[in-house]
Task: structure prediction
Amino acid sequence: MTERLIDIHTHDLTAAAPSIISVEPGAEFIQGKCYSVGIHPYTVGGGGALNLEQLRADAARPEVVAIGETGIDRLKGGGIERQLDVLRAHADISEQLGKPLIMHVVKGFPEVIALRREMRPRQRWIVHGFRGKPELAMELLRHGFDLSLGERFNSDTAAMLPADRLWIETDTSPLSINEIAARVASCRDDGWRFGQV
Result:
């Protein structure tokens, strides 16, 4: 068994390692904590400039272990082409730095699948907060995505995900990572345990 980072995605700035705290470029980084840094699709709207240089600088910091959250959201944020451009920039940084990409995807799975096919990344692309059915999960797994489950998830999906492609997270949940992990584990019959693959 190999230990893995436990809470793949949280917005709790007080969380201690091994949680990965999601922040925007220009955030304050505290030594001893782990971060992901990215431009959320919600903030991509409008025609204003995005600080990609700050993103690149922050992404290279040793405390930053992942890139994102970034992605496609058809319900909020800017136009899809602009969101795709920003996502592509994050994916490039992920590849350049050898750090996984954490993705927020709402009604944008065809676009992110197409982008992954085009880019052929070596780094993991992890869809955070996945709530979809097993059929969508299988399609994403076939295309090389990992999936992270939070407080709300489809129990049939939790049961079928391969242990080495399954992550868990608190995101903004009031539940602890231990409670979420117990809920995921209760759906599985393979002896999956929190924090291990």
In short: The first strand starts at residue 20 and ends at 23. The CA atoms of residues 20 and 172 lie 13 Å apart.
